Amino acid sequence: MPEPTRKAPTIQAWPVGFAPVAKDQRIEVIDALRGFALLGVLIVNLRDFSLFELLPETARATLPTAGWDHFIELAMTALVDGKAMTVFTILFGVGFALQMQRAAEGTGRKIIYFRRLFVLLLIGLVHAFVWWGDILLLYALMGLLLLPFASLRARTLALLGVAIALFSSPLLRPWMNEWLPKIAPAPEASAAALTAFSALQWDGMLSANASHFFWSRISAWGLPFFTLGRLLLGVALGYPGVLRAPESNQRFWRRLRWAGLSLGILLTAFVMLRDQEVIGAGSTWWKTEPGRSILRIARSGGSLFLGLGYVAIFVELFQTAGWRRWLEYFSPVGRMALTNYLTQTVLGIGLFYGVGFGIGPRFGLGGVLAAGAVIFVVQLWWSSWWLERFRFGPVEWVWRCLTYGRRFPLRRVAPA
């Protein structure tokens, strides 16, 4: 990651007490970018909520939208898959950086930091109970690992984050394949989950959710490294002040944009061409362990660097008056990111699972995009409406009250 043009101390004093960050201390570009990332997360997760991802290829081919779904899936693979979660996770890391700066000031603030993560862990447990794709548990657990890195320089954090994100999984795979318990093959696991999630019984759905949560965590055992590496990159961005004063660090953002987009597009194009066997058609080398390791590194690198490129583009556009006027619409969603993330689960299960309206995957990926657009427009409106009347999102308010051990005022005082 390029160094910012203006040097700043590794740890900055934060002139606030034991209280949440006030509205006038928020960094609006972070809120807007977080809201934008949440749109991508919603679209990706709706593929799972709609049960489309659990369908076998033969069933997908019979959908009336099959012709369009192929092109939509290619576009999502190129532009959204892994990239949206990369941006969302990096921004969680930025938030952790700001909290860690405060925690570094004394033992009392460290306790607040740990309590904040503990409450997030509890929220994640509740969320994972109803949806196997929860990421909050990992954010809370990986957040505990971040505090020992608080004294490192931003460049060191960035290099460490890239190394963990790209190389941990290939290096550890030989040992993990021996240590991890054996699980059902993907088609068998997906078929069982599809049947249970399409049924009307809550007990069967919750039982299958627990089983699929366990299966997904074993099959995607590299997810903690994916998460930790991106959180470290977020901490690296949060420390030097490049997000607090992007107008003074234009060179940094310009270099990050070019580096991120160049590497991200190159690696993503390579992986997609290899997946379609345009590159290396008929070659058996790519099925060997070295070949698979290179593909895993390239796949992860494409998502990582393209996600960083997205962050840089958004920050740069946010500095121009014309673009900022439109991008600010994402800010209320980003300020209520936790509430909106959980609400997306409620709406996704309510619309597509058998215990809800039972729509399922019948409308293919076209239906997924349409549902995502409607849900997000509602969240844009609702978040703005709520924050005009209340200081925090509802889940954010609960999170803060439990973290600080006191009740904060929620409703805004109407002007006299």
Polypeptide structure, described:
The chain has 416 residues and is mainly α. Helix content is 70%, strand content 0%. The chain contains 17 helices and no strands. The chain has helices at residues 28-49, 57-61, 66-79, 83-103, 107-130, 136-146, 154-179, 186-198, 202-219, 223-238, 250-275, 289-318, 321-327, 331-335, 337-352, 364-389, 394-404. The protein is globular, with a radius of gyration of 21 Å. Residues 5-19 have low confidence and may be disordered.
Number of helices: 17
| Helical percentage | 55-70%
Distance between the termini: 49 Å
* Element order: H for helix, E for strand: HHHHHHHHHHHHHHHHH
* SS content category: mainly alpha
The 3D shape can be described as globular
Query: What is the overall pLDDT average?
Result: 90
Regions with little confidence, pLDDT below 50 for 5+ residues: 5-19
Oligomer: single chain
Rg, Cα atoms, Å: 21 Å
Assess the beta-strand content as a share of residues.
Answer: under 5%
Query: Quick one: biggest sheet?
Result: none
Number of strands: 0
